[in-house]
């Protein structure tokens, strides 16, 4: 996946689900809000799972063609 990931800080509730499923891609900052540490830190399957399980849908993915998920 050639994609750029982002986290909407206003929507993130800090559940940590993303860090559980894709720990090399996401981390929690000092405010317990998710951050992207490496867009390609984990395999596509783990990153997509992290996006899907986010309870507030705070993670966005824009692929190389500009398609946003």
From TrEMBL:
Keywords (A to Z) from UniProt: 4Fe-4S, Electron transport, Iron, Iron-sulfur, Metal-binding, Transport
Pfam families tied to this protein: Fer4_13
SUPFAM superfamilies xref list: 4Fe-4S ferredoxins (SSF54862)
GO molecular function, one term: iron ion binding
Top-rank lineage group of the source organism: Bacteria
PROSITE patterns: 4FE4S_FER_2
Cited Gene3D superfamilies: 3.30.70.20
Cofactor: [4Fe-4S] cluster
Domain 4Fe-4S ferredoxin-type: 3-31
Record-linked PANTHER family: FERREDOXIN (PTHR39163)
Job description of the protein: Ferredoxins are iron-sulfur proteins that transfer electrons in a wide variety of metabolic reactions.
Protein name: Ferredoxin
């Amino acid at each position: 996946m050639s994609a750029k990931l982002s986290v909407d800080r206003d929507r993130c509730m800090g559940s940590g689900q993303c860090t559980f499923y894709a720990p090399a891609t996401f981390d929690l900052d000092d405010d317990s809000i998710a951050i992207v540490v490496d867009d390609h830190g984990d395999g596509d399957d783990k990153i997509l799972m992290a996006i899907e399980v986010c309870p507030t849908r705070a993670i966005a993915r824009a692929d190389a063609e500009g398609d946003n998920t």
